[in-house]
Amino acid sequence: MRKKIKIIFLFLLCCCARWGYGQLSPGDLTKYHADLEGLLNCTKCHNLGEGISPSKCLDCHTELKQRIDQKKGYHISSEVKAVSCIDCHNDHHGRNFEIIRFDQENFDHQLAGYKLEDAHAEQECVACHKDEFITEKKIRDKEYTFLGLDTKCSACHEDVHQGSLANDCASCHDIKAFKPATRFDHSQSEFPLKGKHLDVDCIECHPINQKNGKDFQVFTGLAFDNCSSCHEDTHGGRFGQNCLECHTEESWHLFKGMGNFDHNKTDFSLSGRHRTTDCFACHKNGTDNSNPFKEFVTWKTFDCALCHEDVHVSKFGSDCKICHSTSSFITLNKDHNFDHAKTDYALEGKHIEVECKACHEGSSKIEVLEFDRCNLCHEDFHQGQFKNEQG
Fold first, then answer.
1. Tell me: the pLDDT tens digits for 89-144?
2. CA–CA separation, 360 vs 340, rounded Å?
3. Closest residue by Cα to residue 64 from 143, 132, 138
4. Contact (Cβ atoms closer than 8 angstroms) between residue 224 and residue 191
5. Radius of gyration of the chain, Cα coordinates, nearest whole angstrom
6. In this predicted structure, which of 126-130, 294-298, 301-305 has the lowest mean pLDDT?
7. How many whole angstroms separate alpha carbon 271 and alpha carbon 310?
8. Is 94 left (phi over 0), alpha (psi -120 to 50) or beta?
9. How many beta carbons lie within 10 A of that of residue 66, not counting itself?
10. Looking at the whole model, is its pTM more than 0.70?
11. What confidence score (pLDDT) does residue 35 get?
């Protein structure tokens, strides 16, 4: 009998408690607060006789309290800083009541500490506010939250550079579009672009390869110590690697500083007047072609007559340096040993010591001279005493 009385008492007590709570509670809590239902949990949110305590809200919502303490986010903005939690997030409206609600279309995102601009302003909220972009597990496990996002580009966007470049994406890219990288200034790199390099498409120097199974455009580790790192050395390395001695970035065919070129590296060393002769006086094909300065690469010899007129019309052979030097065509070598016997008048006796120009007054030295009688050149001291029919 006593056992039955105890059971009936406990049943009535539970009914009274349920009836009493029903009289005190204005309605069911939202599903997010459902674990706080019951009379014993009221003081977890309410101060007796004072209503809802914002500090008790933050005792549970520690992630939000941390941001408020750091002076970050929407809840420290002028719009809500002085507003009580319950003014925006009141409860007891039923299990399916959305306790976080606001006009997403007109929400001023700048109040949250991150202004939406350009392409970001065109996105739906859910494009960014999704679990996969939240790094902290405790926040990511929440069923519904706008917390936990990082403002770094890599927090939402894939790093197509795969860690090969610095993390300061904004130094190259803007928010309007990822391509082109409008903020990148090549002049601030280790290889400032000049001349024709300015007109070259990026991909010509920065190829797209495969890395980790994905397209990867190479922007680092490219060799640029000398031109041949990218350009074919048409000289085959014969003239060294300092291309700027002769070439400019304006055009492969526009030359500068040709006076610095060491012609001794070719098969024809320059000496005498050849050193002061304009390059194009010999290299007459010009530079507007695929092989500038290569007119003579097939030559086996460099006889003077190949470039200069042979005023001796081949009478004295092709070895001009026997008499001439590169300093002047007219001035003969002091130690020249021209063989006069190759002419019709071999020199003998005192004639050997006579300067050439004493007889050969013309510049070509091949003028026809009569030499069958001595008095054609010499004075007749005998004054015609021995003159005969031949003169």
1. 999 999 999 988 888 889 999 999 999 999 999 999 999 999 999 988 989 988 88
2. 13
3. 138
4. yes
5. 50
6. 294-298
7. 20
8. left
9. 13
10. no
11. 92
Phi-psi region of 380 (alpha: psi -120 to 50; beta: other; left: phi over 0): beta
Average pLDDT over residues 30-43: 90
Identify the residue whose tokens are 């002061």: 276
Nearest to 113 by CA among 145, 67, 159, 144: 67
Phi-psi region at 221: left, alpha or beta (left = phi > 0; alpha = psi -120 to 50): left
The whole-angstrom separation of Cα 37 and Cα 29 is 7
Question: CA-CA distances (angstroms) from residue 234 to 14, 85, 102, 176, 293?
Answer: 99, 76, 69, 44, 11
- Residues 232, 237, 239, 242: what is their CA dihedral angle, to the nearest 10 degrees? 60
| Signed CA dihedral, 136, 140, 144, 148: sign only | positive
Question: What count of residues does the chain have?
Answer: 391
Residue with tokens 């680092």: 220
Alpha carbon distance 129, 116 (integer Å):
13
Are 128 and 149 a contacting pair, CB within 8 Å? yes
10 Å Cβ neighbour count for 84? 14
Q: Mind spelling out the 3-state secondary structure of the chain?
A: CHHHHHHHHHHHHHHHHHHHHHHHCCCCCCHHHHHHCCHHHHHHCEECCCEECHHHHHHHCHHHHHHHHCCCCHHHCCCCCCCCHHHHCCCCCCCCCCCCCCCCCCCCHHHHCCCCCHHHHCCCHHHHCCHHHCCCHHHHCCCCCCCCCCCCHHHCCCCCCCCCCCCCHHHCCCCCCCCCCCCCCHHHCCCCCCHHHHHCCHHHHCCEEEECCEEEECCCCCCCCCHHHCCCCCCCCCCCCCHHHCECCCCCCCECCHHHCCHHHCCCCCCHHHHHCCHHHHCCCCCCCCCCCCCCCCCCCCCHHHCCCCCCCCCCCCCHHHCECCCCCCCECCCCCCCHHHCCCCCCHHHHHCCHHHHCCCCCCCCCCCCCCHHHCCCCCCCCCCCCCCC
Q: Which of 152, 74, 144, 83 is nearest to 111 (CA)?
A: 74
Residue whose token pair is 């002091």 = 334
